[in-house]
Structures
1.
Amino acid sequence: MQVIEKIKDVSNFIKELKTQKKTVGFVPTMGFLHEGHLSLMRYAKKVTDVVVVSIFVNPTQFGPKEDFNAYPRDMEGDKGKCLEAGVDILFIPPAAEIYPDGYLTYVNVENITDVMCGASRPGHFKGVATIVAKLFNIVKPDKAFFGQKDYQQAVVIKRMAADLNMDVDIEALPTIREPEGLAISSRNSYLSGAERAAAACLYMSLKLAEDRISKGERNCAKIIEAMQHIIQSEKLAKIDYIAIADTETLEEIKTIDRKVVIALAVWIGKTRLIDNIVI
């Protein structure tokens, strides 16, 4: 596995691989890798010739009161996991390499970033779109892989790539869950034992919604009300939002008459967790 820090070095290395007609798969991450990330890497290994992983905790997607400094990091552990997953190139640029002095340019995807997590975290998706656009330009992948847990993020990146004519195929792969159903996330490391038990209410509420819909319920307000009841019965939980929306436009709907994403964000203590299902 090649470990590279400089943009020029990784670009030149990949350019050489492209002359050999190698297909490049890309998994961008913020590190503190878990089974969700590793599942993306293993899948990329199956469908492309060369797997590139980036680790960069992106400061521009964190708000002023968010957890940038506290965000979990484990570079040595991450290197070992990447090696075991068969990663060919690990790109770990320092912040000054990505955002040098005088940096002025950002990517803003409109409308679909104003709802759900975008409403709760102003500017978050501008930071996400900017870093992913930069990484796509640096790595020039044929395919890029993201997790469905961050559903809105995947929709935003697909829209950005389509609108800006980026020559990359983007796949969102299924959420990896812990045995009790909790979506695996780097931020789960913040949870105490009691909070981890409480966090099960997210997936329980999503499964309740799925059950109600399978039995014929189409009224979104009634479904959300039932989900709220489950979450609010957990004293450590505080709802940020619950949304039932069109899978592509992310526009909230009142009646289920199409494929939908049911997404939510819930505070468990001081930790904000997200999850979703597509029905």
2.
Amino acid sequence: MVHEHCNRCLAVARWHSNAVLMVVDAAFDSIGLNYFQSVVPKVELFRINLVEPGIITTMEELADADSDKLIPIWKNARSWQVAREVATYLSTLKNKYKISDREALIHWAKHADLKGWQLDPIGKIKGVGINTYQYLRMMGGMDTVMPDKIVKKVLFQILDRVNIPHPKSDIDFILLIEKLAPCTGYRAIELCWMTWLMQSEAGLSRTEKYASILPQI
């Protein structure tokens, strides 16, 4: 299931290949709430209430969306600011290259600089940290990893077993895991998702608990 989910992520096909929903997902996730219990249901609510009726279907519409349409879905204003500013930048790429929303996300992810991420137009957005930046790159088709605390904790334990020193920075961590991933038989993105999905909730791994949700996102 993890392999299939990561294949979908690398194919830029999460959320039924809807890039607007991917941006909203990343924006909601940026404040650190439980992904499956808090973020996923609200992204789905956004899809049902605003995307399906045709109210917000493009990056331009997300960028220009009024708060009175958004706040009833998700009350955190900072998340919406992140979503709108990311959508604004992706819409400029979309218009510049005459491409779709999804292709704009792919284009950005492919050309986004990791080492200089804070100078990137999306990296400069207030509320976009290295984790959100990397998460967007992953959803844009890049085989990489997020340096969040759970991922680092699990992978540091693995590094300890093979006597590899802990990287000093998040960037060094990302680059090391990308380099070591082929040696493990997994891709970097799989190592990232496995660390989240192996965590236990109510006595079940998240892979088991959310087995019905994963194929939908």
3.
Amino acid sequence: MPNGGWERVIQKLEVSSLTEKQLAKTIDHAVLKPSSTEVQIKEGCSIALKYKVAAICVNPCYVRLCADILKNSEVKVDAVIGFPLGANAPVMKKAEAQRAVEDGAAELDMVLNIGALKEGDYKYVREEIQQVVEAGRGALVKVILETCYLNEHEKIEACKLAEEAGAHYVKTSTGFGPEGAKVEDIKLMYRTVGPRLGVKASGGIRGLSDALAMIEAGATRLGTSATQTIMEDWVSRNYK
């Protein structure tokens, strides 16, 4: 599969030499609550711009708004696909991805079909990821495993399928399941596909200590709504 020009070797970050700018560039600022309003989306864009994070992660209906606000900035728009259950038909995920890119998304976080994975229908899972990658037309694609529902073997297989399908990242969680990111899952995912693919930790990252633990384990992106807290903690603790 073509990689859309994205770098396929994603270097693990060293916490001991991490800079404030590098920390900010690990963050996808998430505004994904079903109750999120346009006002809150705009506030999220302001936070993303203030700290110059990697991306703002939003539901598809807000992609065009964010793209307009973030135009001419270095902050990308990241749309969730098949969110949060992953149970949409592949054709719907493909259409959702196509529309998100048309509206201005540069990154796509798709939820794989968890039931199909657990049943061992790897062909189905691989092909639906591949369809989103193709529909993304060069957008960076992150595959959400929702690790809280998977055993170790299933997590490994999901990572392999994502790589085979041409995705660029594997991601732990939606943040809407019963559990979020765990250090042991990040380590497992990095061992499986790193540094060829990036690893995104998401769900339950509420402060700087959480963020640094995930980066130490191998995460190169963090999905969090606590961006301001994390960055303020960095400054107040005099990390350089």
4.
Amino acid sequence: MRTLSIVGALVIVALGCIEAQSQNYRDPSIPRTKDGQPNLSAPAPRLNGKPDLSGVWQAERTPVNEFVRVLGPGLPAIQPDLNDITKHVLSVLWDVPGGEQLLRPEAAAIMQQRQKSGRDFPTAYCQPGSIPASMLILDFKMIQAPGEIVVLAGNGDPARQIYIDGRSLPKDPEPSWMGSSAGRWEGETLIVETTGFKDSAWLDGFGHPRSEAMRITERYRRRDFGHMDIEMTFDDAQNYTRPFGFKTTATLLPDTDVLEYICTENQRRYRPPTP
């Protein structure tokens, strides 16, 4: 079954990253309870009057029974299973009622061709997963400075630079895997807009396409020290009849870090099929 081969490829990619997720270090900046445990309910830290989003984060994991409900019982047996990805890595339309009906005919044809070709999600071939996968596979680290936020992905994707110094998005960006990003604050929420993607990048494991003109809007709100609400909206009139999106929650992973991960050292078993 094609869906299950996509799931299997994503799980193996996550398995290859697993040893690069943790580093035992007691961070003195983390508030703690009397017994020394991180106090994730403490107030969110601030930088120059705004919430500081810095930290290592992990998006809320999807229960395995939810995968089974949608994909069927024949899920891959190789698990730390689906605990290293979320449902939106497989499909950004997972929670959108009638989501597949949003695809324009040309977009539906692209997705069907990708599924028939035998290719898997680009991460299986050591290409970047891009957004949103880089935020939803394993973990990610945000480093906030006064003029920009750098995002390091645990799955080995290129770093993102989100400029929060007042600049606008470039009018004619050079297409790239991670796009060009600019952010602004609205109260306690950081709003990030990103465009200028390579159109060869898949939007998810099912092969939903994106055009170079796709605009992804992210909203980040750090509720307290250990929890952050994330909302992503996708707007691509070339491929979809209207914008759509999803919401998730990220949890801080204290006393850890995102370590270097080189895909080719772990994924040699995956090669694109011969034309």
